[in-house]
Amino acid sequence: MPELSRFLGIVIAMYYRDHAPPHFHAIYGDFEVTIEIESSKVNGEFPKRASRFQSRFESERSVLTLNRKSKKV
């Protein structure tokens, strides 16, 4: 599984040719969640401590996505 990021014990990854809708996986120890890219819908649960960092990653990803879209115009 290609790793996009690794921070504070959380691995962010995407599978090649994974099912729709587009999403990434966040893995923390024995816990795994999927997060839809367009809606930021989270499927699964993390321990409370890891959830805070997951939210931070989503916020940063949203800013990068908006910047990329604005440059295409």
Automatic annotation (TrEMBL):
It comes from the Bacteria. Pfam families: DUF4160. This is DUF4160 domain-containing protein. It comes from Candidatus Methylophosphatis roskildensis.
